[in-house]
Amino acid sequence: MSDGVIDIIAFSPHPDDAEIGCGGLLLKLKDKGYTTGIIDLTRGELSTNGDIRLREKETEEASKLLKLDLRENLELNDCNIINDQSSRLKVIDAVRKYKLKIAVIPFYKDRHPDHENSHKLLKDAIFISGLEKYKTAYSFHRPKIVIFYMLNYFFEPSFIVDISEYHKQKMKVCRAYRSQFYRYSSVDKSTYINSRFFKDLITSRDKCYGLRIKAEYGEPYFIESDLMIDDPVEFFNYLL
After folding, report:
1. CA 36 to CA 26: how far, in whole Å?
2. Cα–Cα distance measured from residue 59 to residue 52, given in angstroms and rounded to the nearest whole number
3. DSSP-assigned beta bridge partners for residue 11
4. Contact 11, 105 (CB under 8 A)
5. Residue-wise over 202-238: b if at least 16 C-beta within 10 A, else e?
6. How far apart are CA 140 and CA 43, in angstroms?
7. Rounded to whole angstroms, how far apart are CA atoms 87 and 91?
8. Which residues contact 171 (CB under 8 A, 6 or more apart)?
9. Contact present, 145 and 223 (Cβ < 8 Å)
10. How does pLDDT run across 202-215, given as a tens digit for each residue?
């Protein structure tokens, strides 16, 4: 895929996390003409069901459905994401190489340790990436904003993106990961994410946050920066 500038990149601890947390946003921004990408930190090699080869095929299918301009894997160790120098350098080189405008990363609190550990790693590496005197193969760069997406734990969002037109396609993208979200044989083991309750959670959550902004479906996001509203009358028209 592309070696050029990418407008928005979602960082995913495992293949499928970004699709769940911000798949609707990626689809919507792609439709608006922005370049989009996902960088996976691990290959999800310790997943209960499936194997690396199958996950690679599923990831390829999901990437096509998302119409991504970029999909890469940093090949960190599944269930052992560490905020160390070598891991930071991999993230920093990706940020500097693609000069992204927006980075989307997991929220800092989650049931899976990889999700929490990846948040700290990514946040630190993205900051360091903007330091001119920190030398690597690429020149310094820092995205304009880092946005946190929701996986398992709920948070009060800074804003909600209307994904009503894209929710159906988002769920199709998630279904590409058949080995993770479905059980097709007695060999497949029952897990938290392949129960019908998890799929219902994704749909119900998107429905809930959509209703909060008077839309059919929405995705919640958190940022640590303040929002500037130039024209409150125009901005809040969606509430009228």
Report:
1. 6
2. 10
3. 39
4. yes
5. beebbeebbeebebebbbbbbeeeeeeeeeeeeeeee
6. 27
7. 7
8. 202, 203
9. yes
10. 899 999 999 999 99
CATH fold of 8-239 reads: Rossmann fold (3.40.50)
Q: Which residue in the block uniquely carries the two structure tokens 């590409």?
A: 176
* Cβ contact 30:119 at 8 Å: no
| Pair type for strands 36-42 and 70-76 | parallel
Q: What is the DSSP letter of 172?
A: H
Reference 181, options 54, 66, 94; nearest CA is 54
Assess contact for 167 and 217: CB atoms under 8 A.
yes
Backbone dihedral angles phi then psi of residue 166, each to the nearest 5 degrees: -120, 0
Dihedral of alpha carbons 41, 110, 19, 122, sign:
negative
Specify whether the CB–CB gap between 149 and 106 falls below 8 A: yes
Distances (CA, A) of 98 to 25, 43, 129: 19, 21, 12
> What does the pLDDT look like over 150-182, one tens digit per residue?
999 999 999 999 999 999 999 999 989 887 766
Q: Which two tokens stand for residue 238?
A: 């969606």
